[in-house]
Amino acid sequence: MLINWKSRIPGVRKLFDGSVWRGGFLPVPLVSLALLFFFVHPCPAPDFKVPSFPNFFKGRGNETLQEVGRAPTGPGGLCQLPNGDYIISCHQFFGHQYRVMRKSRDGWEPFPNLEMNTPGKGHPVELDSVLGVVNNGNVVWMLDNGRRSGKQPKLVAWDTKKDCLHRIILLNPSVRETSILKNLVLDPNYPFIYISDPADGVESAIIVVNLDTGLSRRVLDGHTSVRSDPAVSIILDGKTVEARRADGKLAKPLSGVSPFALDRKGEWLYYGPRNSTTLHRIKTELLRLPNLPPSTLNANVKGFCPKPVCDSIAIDSKDRIYFSDIGNSAVTYVTPDDDYLEIHPLVMDPRMVWPGGLLFGTDGQLHFFCNQLNRAPIFNGGRNQTSSPYYLFKIRPLPTKRFKRLPDFPTKLPQPLKNQ
Question: Alpha-carbon torsion 135, 140, 145, 147, what sign?
Fold first, then answer.
């Protein structure tokens, strides 16, 4: 059963709709009077707003947004090795000659090697169309959806310390004709990997991979929580982001389940369609049960909080969720401080064209890329309208101590465009 986040304590949300409350500061006498009026007064709750002090919390501004690199093409995924090196997948929509690349002190180079990135070189393991990349220490897992050349979808793990192939898992039994496997997360407690398959926005699903057996299962297939919302569109560069199919009709590829993250304890998987306004979550223990009836699994999906149109999310140790907010060229977040009811801006910058790949780096900061995906040929009649640089950025996340200041930005963001 889906739970609408908008229905959670609606009266209290309306009562405390002031920026001071969201910042964690409210005079105690005012709280007492407000609660007394709200719960005792027989009339409907008034449109009450506590006074706001816009200068009380000094805004951090964009001065903390740091450029840390420039990718050779639009990335599709991002991870960072223990030594600080970046690994990016080269998004297949840009047709770059390499599939995965590594940024070290010497610059960018094919990862894990040139042969695996060059079809026809005779290597027994060839990378075709990698999007999701994630590392467990020195082992990098690459999610190859095989859509460039019609190859078998697979997981490829490479041990960077031993410089050798760690493992390959074929995913054919769990994919559909429309599948385009995108993001993956590693369970920190159990030998499982969870994969998002946005497919065509309709046949979307989550794939669960058991690393002990090498078997994979497709779950929540076509469920509301993984399907694209047809009423939500993206407007960038003054136009709706759409792709033209072979039959000439317009489509929105990759709009199904895309943002994908586990909480720090690995208890909940948070996810949602790229084109939607709600983030969902489900207990990972349920995903690991192979004989659980689909109806039972579906009933345990929880609608958790609002979200912008986004491709990636990251969760910090205080359970704050950060979004790569595509439509606003921003990184935004929700916080338990206001019961996850409002989306707040962390950073906005015109250089952040289609941000993605959010992750907490080895330095504890929030790292991400901007790949200009809306300017790729598939969205522009076959013409590549991107232009270098493809930025890699990092920014300080929110402070870990309570009652620290929030960024001094507007408290509400523009909502995703709804088709008329």
Answer: positive
